[in-house]
Amino acid sequence: MLALEIKDLSVRFGEFWALEGVSLAVPEGAFVAIVGPNGAGKSTLLKAILGLVPFRGEVRVYGLPLRQVDPMWFGYVPQIKTFDRSFPALALELVLTGLRRSWPFRVSPKEREEALRALARVGAEGLAERPLGRLSGGQLQRVYLARALIRKPRILLLDEPATGVDRVGEVDLYRYLEDYQKASGATVFMITHDWEAAHHATHVLVMNRKVVGFGPPEKALTEACLRQAFGHVGHAH
Ligand code: ADP
Ligand code: MG
């Protein structure tokens, strides 16, 4: 079963094509690391999959065209610099928005417990009553991850989830995500600048407005692919 099938996807911002002719077939249960230089269209690709930006071409999720896909199937952790911390809520309240398509809404005691458990799973139980504006970047990442996980997503889309997380926290996070993927059977897409993390994925997508390479790490993370995407080898920035 394919979790995601993309055919000839293009995204245009004015005169500029952020993505051009992207085609991809991702099996259910894959852990896909997405790498590419800044401005390569990585975030735009996730947004197209989520239906957040208009695109040309075709995106199918578990065989269904995107307009028929329940948004609750997706868990999304956006890129941290795009987070709006002025959202007037406590961490726990943000996690609870993961349970619904709209906000605000009525919460049951059971759902509150569920949200606290989701925070505990990502090591953020102590942050439940903290306003978002008073969280560090790494803490905010965890809270958004808890929000994504509480949806029990079939597809988890993570846009540089280790930003603002220290190196130890980063390794913990990757290990956690790997275990989570195996236990849940969800399909995970993670944009990363971390080569180590990319080597641990089941698939790597190397991209720069187009697909440069896609496959198991040892096939996609070749010198030729990286040179083509980055212009040089060994650094993601
Ligand atoms: P990446 O995540 O790989 O760094 P992005 O997907 O964020 O790249 O952006 C790809 C390109 O599209 C960049 O040149 C960026 O400036 C441009 N872009 C992204 N979003 C918009 C937008 N909403 N309007 C105009 N240009 C955009
Ligand atoms: Mg980005």
Automatic annotation (TrEMBL):
Listed CDD domains: ABC_Metallic_Cations (cd03235)
Cross-referenced InterPro entries: AAA+_ATPase, ABC_transporter-like_ATP-bd, Metal_Ion_Import_ABC, P-loop_NTPase
Gene3D superfamilies: P-loop containing nucleotide triphosphate hydrolases
Pfam families, alphabetized: ABC_tran
Domain ABC transporter positions: 4-234
Gene Ontology terms, MF aspect: ATP binding
Keywords: ATP-binding, Nucleotide-binding, Transport
Full protein name: Manganese transport system ATP-binding protein MntA
Naturally occurring in which organism (per UniProt): Thermus aquaticus (strain ATCC BAA-2747 / Y51MC23)
